[in-house]
Design a protein that fits this description.
mainly alpha, 165 residues, Rossmann fold, three-stranded parallel beta sheet
Length: 165
């Protein structure tokens, strides 16, 4: 399975200490050079920069074969490269949170998985404690409404109840 990640899913999974879900869900993850550069930026949280100093074996950094299409110029550089790399490698999914980037990727027939979907998938496989992960995520700069978090937790409770029957 080939999965490409943009900056934000990796950043927030690092911040909430849930990166272990990525190899468990996908085996390995590929990022374009622009995403690596963004996550190494001086403005990036120290915890994230430290994590990137010791890259895990399941994370691969790739350079694009060709520049991103001009039709993606409205996106930031990391998003453009993540979508372009996903197309080049015929990826099974691209991990992206930004709404405009998700729409652009979907318009190109890419399967998009935002951070919250990753957390739900991981919780369904008992890889994380979803309420704890949501609590940690809510203390970061991640943008989601409390209602969205509540809906996730409700779906999680329903899934758990269905399993226990």
């Amino acid at each position: 399975m080939i999965v490409i990640s943009n900056t934000t899913p990796l950043r927030y999974l690092i911040e909430i200490e849930n990166t272990h879900i990525l190899p468990a869900l996908f085996g390995r993850v590929v990022i374009p050079q622009a995403v690596f550069d963004e996550l190494s930026d001086p403005k990036t949280p120290q915890q994230v920069k430290e994590w990137f100093r010791n890259l895990p074996v399941w994370l691969e950094i790739r350079t694009l074969s060709s520049p991103p299409a001009s039709t993606l110029s409205f996106l930031d550089y990391g998003e453009r490269e993540a979508i372009t790399l996903a197309l080049e490698l015929k990826a099974d999914a691209v991990l992206i949170d930004d709404r405009a980037a998700r729409k652009a990727a979907q318009a190109l027939s890419l399967t998009v998985l935002p951070t919250l979907a990753l957390l739900e998938q991981a919780a369904a496989r008992d890889l994380i404690d979803l309420p704890q992960s949501i609590e940690r995520l809510s203390k970061t700069t991640f943008r989601a409404t409390p209602k969205l978090f509540e809906q996730m937790l409700e779906r999680h409770r329903e899934l758990r109840e269905a399993r226990n029957k």
